[in-house]
Structures are given as structure tokens and as C-alpha cells.
Amino acid sequence: MEIGFWGAAQTVTGSLHILRVNEHYVFLDCGLFQGRRAEAYERNRVFPVPPTDVNAVILSHAHIDHSGNLPTLVKQGFQGLIYATPATRALCALMLADSAHIQEKDAEYLLQHRGEHIEPLYTPDDIPRTMARFFSIGYGKPIQIAPGILFRFRQAGHILGSAQIFLELSEGGRTVRVGFTGDLGRQHPLLFPPPDRPEPVDVLIAESTYAGLRHEGTNTVRQHLQEIFHSVARQKGVLLIPAFSVGRTQEVLFHLNELANAGELPPMPIFVDSPLADEATQAFRTFLPEFNTTVQHLLMTDSDPFDFPQLRFTHSVEESKAILRERPPYAVIAGSAMCESGRILHHLKRHIGNRRTTILFVGFSAAHTLGRRLVEGEKRVRIFGDSYTVRARVLELPGLSAHADGDDLLRYFRLLPTSTSIALVHGEPSRQEILRRQLQQCGFERVLVPQSGEWLRL
Questions:
Q1: Shared domain check, 113 and 238
Q2: The CATH number of the domain where 317 resides is what?
Q3: CATH code of the domain containing 201
Q4: Comparing C-alpha atoms, which of 412, 410, 415 is closest to residue 439?
Q5: Is the peptide bond before 429 cis (omega within 30 degrees of 0)?
Q6: What is the domain extent for residue 301?
Q7: Angle, helices 429-441/406-413, rounded to nearest 10 degrees
Q8: For 180-208, how does the pLDDT look when each residue is reduced to its tens digit (9 = 90+)?
Q9: Is the pTM of this model over 0.85?
């Protein structure tokens, strides 16, 4: 029995880990790697195991860096099942179709405007075949998916449908218990129940994105949002918010809805320039019973926690282009969160050189992405191959993150026996080193930071 680490190893993107049990291969996640275009394309095209040899995929949640390469896997011959919670399956149907559409449109744009020929990893025609491989299973229900491989989902508290994965692996008379946190939510998530306690395991594959860092509280985040919106309104500027269309956008809307209910938003239009975000928000409404008690209480007085009078969703390309003719002040929430694709790039092209523009990052940007370069203060960046001077104000609001912070992670790990072996993934090396030292101080003797391509014998 072995665990292989491939994606999200010493980085925060392209989640993919491999189990080999009784000569069966199971993938934990199958996400898109995001970063430099040529490197990303190659890494997403090549799998560590031939797709025809993979027996199953267990999916932690719907974010593209965890699910977005499933159509490539199916396109290359995968014939197994993809196990996911019902909400994750519903969101993937939207997100994978959107990912395919974006890849096609970006390829068309680059060919038309730059003369570059980029072959999409997959197209919309590949999505029905991918969704046909999904098998839904609820939290806490054990299921055997191959000889010697039994697993169950537990609540992860990260986004709608997100799950921790706990497995019992048996081979040659030996049984090993393995856990995978997926992306772990905060101790007090904004919208969802907190993560379930971890089950006792021999090996835990654990995310480490915000190790050593502490998020701001909900009230502080909401106050910062209010101040930023009023500042943009006073300057008659434009506020651009790159955000995941699923999860982060709904959290931002929830905060803005609360501000609007309290009369604390300035009178400026707020556009969600993402058909996917609109569809995902509707899906969120379908699964409202899965939300936490705070949201359930709000629903007694506010029938829709994601809508308020100033909010406008756009769908067509024409509606998106019309925003550019809007007279400031206004705000735009659009994907992608790391500014690697999607409609946010067109708004950045138009406004990044204006000193009255504010770009607000509400989540993590991986290394080598445009989002990271902006956050790190680069003054010249390339968008669709053209160079632009950055005069816009760039801000971060990490308190909006749906990831566990450093304190949340340590609180979670302390619920495990110190004999547990822990493999840290989905984090940058500097963060992982901080967490490794902290865990060793807590008494965990075996804390690994695996490299991509490394295998761990169980």
C-alpha cells in the first residue's frame, strides 16, 4: 500500500494524491494546476498514472483546483466512478462546464489577438461524459469502492458540499487508516457548519495553506469591506474583486447583504460579472438546509441572504461589456480569483492603469499567477500577452478566506493522537515549515512535507 503525492505538493494548486491498494489506483481529487501557462498546460495534460488504470476518484469539493482536471482524466480514458457529496456534484456540473467555456474563449482570444494557438485541455463536449461518471454519497455513509478500500465523507466546513475523506485500506492482512482533510474550513465558518472532528488515523494528508497566520474576525472583515466601498465611492472609482465564483463570491455577497440591511453601503451598483456565480448562488439557495445556524436564523427575517437592491448579475458577453461603459463609482466581482482567466482580466485591462481603481483580493493567489504578482506589488504585468502599468491600489482582505487559519489547524491536529503521521500538502514551503515545527512541538514525531512525485509506503 502506498500514497503518491502529485498535485498541491509544496504548492496550493492542482490537488491530486494517489492511493495504491491491492494494485488498484484511487485519486484523491483531480484539480487544475494554475500558474505559468506553459508549465500549467503540461502538468494538467500528464497524469502520474495512466487514466485507464485509475479505478476511482474521491473528490473533496468542487473548487477548480480540486476538480477542474476531471474532464481531462475522462477524455484520456478514465472509466471509473467519481465519488462526491450531492452538493459537490451539483456545483461541479456548473463549474466544469464554465471551465471548458473559459478555456475555449481564452484560446479564441489569444489566437485572434496574439496569433497564439492554444489547444484547450477539454471542451464543453467533454463535460456530459465527465458528469456521467459521478456517484453521489452523503456525509458519514461508508462505502467500499474497490477491494480493500472503504471510505466515508465528513463535513469540512470549507464550501458547500466540501468534505474530509477518511479511508480504511486493507491489503495482505494489514489495515491502515488514512485521512485527507481536503480544504479545511474555519472553526466558525461564515455560512456552513464547522469541520467535523477528525477520525483516528494512522496517516493524515492535511492542507496547510494559512499555517502560522491568523484570520480577522467576521465583524472586522465586514468593517473593512464597508470602509473600502465608501473610499471607492468618495473617489468615484472602480472596485474590482477577483473571487472564486463558488464559495468566495457568495461569502462576499453575504457580507454585503448584511451591510445593505444595515444601511451601511454607499449608493453604487455592484456587478457580479459571472454567469457561473449566478448559477452557483442559485444552487446555494437549493441547499440552504445545509447552512449553519447563523444563516438559518437570518432566513427568518431575510428570505435571500445573497441578494440586495444594488446587486446586478450579468450573463451575456454584451452585458459584461456594458459594465465598461458604466459611470463610476461601481464595483465588479468576477472570476478567476487568481486572475488567470475569465472576465476579471478584461476589467483589469481597462482599469489597472487608473489610480482611482482599487483591486481587492479576498483569497489566496498561488505563486506565478497574475494575482500573486499584483499582491506582491509588481508595477508592470502582462494580461493576454500585453504589458500594462499598475497604477491601481491593490488591497488584500485575507479574513474572508474560507480556509482554516493557523490556530484552526493546530486546534484540529490536537484532536489526533501524536502517533499519527502527517503529510502536509496544499501549502507553500515556508508555511509548511512553520506548521511542521509547530506540530513537532505538539509531540507529533512524523511530519512530512512531500515533493511532487514522492511516494509514501504504508
A1: no
A2: 3.40.50.10890
A3: 3.60.15.10
A4: 410
A5: no
A6: 218-400
A7: 40
A8: 999 999 998 999 999 999 999 999 999 99
A9: yes
CB burial of 165-204 (b: ≥16 within 10 Å; e: otherwise) equals bbbbbebeeeebbbbbbbbbbbbebbbbebbbebbebebb
Fill in the amino acid letter for 209: T
Q: Are residues 145 and 235 in the same domain?
A: no
Residue 110 scores a pLDDT above 80: no
Query: Final residue of a domain: which of 384, 400, 416?
Result: 400
Mean pLDDT, all residues of the chain: 94
Among the ranges given (50-59, 215-224, 235-244, 262-271), the one the predictor scored with the smallest mean pLDDT: 215-224
Mean pLDDT of 131-147: 97
Shared-domain flag, residues 228 and 376: yes
Is residue 209 located within the same domain as residue 226? no
Q: Please enumerate in sequence order all residues whose Cβ is within 8 A of that of 1, keeping only pairs 6 or more positions apart, or say none.
A: 19, 20, 21, 169, 171, 174, 176, 457, 458
Same domain flag for 410 and 264: no
Domain boundary among 377, 400, 423: 400
Predicted confidence (pLDDT) at residue 398 exceeds the cutoff of 90: no
pLDDT at 102: 83
Does residue 197 sit in the same domain as residue 223?
no
Which amino acid makes up residue 235?
Q
Query: Alpha-carbon torsion 416, 58, 17, 279, what sign?
Result: negative
Claim to verify: residue 385 and residue 406 sit in the same structural domain: no
Return the C-alpha cell found at 365: 493567489
Other beta carbons within 10 angstroms of residue 307's beta carbon come to 16
Same domain, 267 and 305: yes
Count of domains observed in the chain? 2
